[in-house]
Structure formats: C-alpha cells, structure tokens
Write a structure and sequence with these properties.
single chain; mainly alpha; His-Me finger endonuclease fold; Double Stranded RNA Binding Domain; 3 domains; two-stranded antiparallel sheet; extended
C-alpha cells in the first residue's frame, strides 16, 4: 500500500494533517504512542498524516483517561473522608460529655474488633488493642491523619500545618519549620556530605541525592512520561523532558 496522502490510523483520505503536528507540549504522534503500542518516527516510510476523524477519536481517548483519573481521585478522597468521620464518631462515643468514659455493664460493652473488622474475644487481646489504639490516637495528626512514632514527632509535625518557620539559617534568609530541615540546608553552606554510596563511595549532602544516585547502579527508572514510553531516573529529568518536546 502506498504511503502517500492517507491517514496513518484509519487509512482514509479525507481532511488530512501532519501526524507530527504539535499541540501544547507534545505532538499528535507522541500522544498516539502513549495510548497504542505503535512506534511513529519521521521518514519511517509510513504515512505521515492523520485525518480529522481520528484526531477527534484521539482526543476522546485522552479525555476518557483523564476522566478516569479525576474520578478515581475524587472517589478515594470521598472514601477517606467517610473513614475519618466514622473514626471521629467512634471516638466521640467513647467519651462522655464530662470527659470520662461512659459506664457500661459487661453485657452492654461493644465488641472490640481488629483492623480486619474481626471481633477480639480475649480480654488480654482487648487490653492490648485498647492500649495500642489509645497510643495511636495520641500520636495521630487530626489535620492530615498521619500517625507519628512519638508525641515529640507529632509536636514537630504539627508545625508543618501552621506555616510557622522558627528555624532560620544564619548564612541566608531561608527559614524552616523543622530543625532537621535546617540542618540539611546548612550543608549547602558548609559543603558537608555525610551520606555515602555503598557501591562507589560518592558522597552526598541530602538523602534524596543519594537515592537518585543509587538508581545509576540499580538501573531503576521510577518516573514515566504519560505521553511517550520513556522513563527517567529523577523527577527533574522527567520535567526537562516534558518541557522540551
């Protein structure tokens, strides 16, 4: 079949445009390759045009994918809110208005259940579960729901929600909400690189830099482009790729 003026997708002849036409940050060919297992390059001997009908179908496919992603995010957030409301309601039922635990007879006590919603019948297990649950609630952030390993870590974590940044750098104007973040930042002034790669011995100032470096040895490429099959070792490489189509 001739590779002349025909649509590369449906092989039709009507209302053709270049398949390498750029729309936004990517070309039509790139968008097609992100959805279908085909490879399209200039001068590959195959048709280099696409018809209006196929462009419309392409847009519908992209919109369908985005709709799926938006709905998934919305449904998961809704589910998280429902779970949080149930937890808060359960905690309110555990405390009387005067702040003390409600008095119940042994027959009136609600069964204790574990994380899989299975009833815990052993009194010993109930006591352990109650203690762990109380400890977890004391160490849980009620703004984002994150559970910290200690009350101290919870206290420092809460600062991230208030916007307060009490730790300032003596060398520049930057301020930080956590002392650990300031400690890491100070390495940009001192040149200190305490983190070392166990494979080649190269040193780094930040754990993120070390983690990205280790992928050179493992070959891991965790960041993928949504518009083409390429994958990248760091998010910075992915962002550069996305803005230079």
């Amino acid at each position: 079949m001739s590779s002349g003026n025909i649509c590369r997708i449906c092989l039709g002849h009507d209302s053709l445009t270049s398949i390498f036409h750029k729309r936004g940050l990517s070309m039509l060919s790139t968008q097609i390759m992100s959805l279908a297992r085909v490879h399209i390059t200039p001068n590959d001997g195959l048709p280099s045009t696409i018809c209006t009908k196929c462009i419309t179908k392409l847009d519908e496919c992209i919109e369908f994918i985005r709709l799926c992603e938006r709905s998934d995010v919305e449904l998961r957030l809704s589910l998280e809110n429902i779970v949080k409301k149930r937890k808060l309601k359960a905690e309110e039922l555990c405390v009387d208005e005067d702040g003390s635990s409600p008095s119940r007879t042994e027959n009136e006590k609600s069964p204790v259940v574990d994380e899989n919603n299975c009833e815990i019948t052993s009194d010993l297990h109930k006591d352990v579960y109650d203690k762990n649950d109380k400890k977890r609630r004391k160490q849980q952030c009620f703004t984002c729901g994150k559970v910290m390993s200690s009350r101290f870590r919870l206290k420092t974590h809460l600062i991230t929600h208030t916007g307060e940044k009490p730790f300032s750098c003596p060398h520049c104007s930057k301020c930080f909400s956590l002392s650990q973040n300031l400690k890491v930042h100070m390495r940009t002034h001192t040149g200190e690189k305490p983190l070392q790669c166990s494979v080649c011995g190269e040193s780094f100032a930040q754990s993120a830099g070390l983690a990205a470096h280790r992928r050179k040895h493992t070959g891991q490429m965790p960041y993928s482009c949504v518009l083409c099959p390429r994958r990248f070792r760091t998010v910075g490489h992915l962002q550069y790729h996305a803005t230079h189509w």
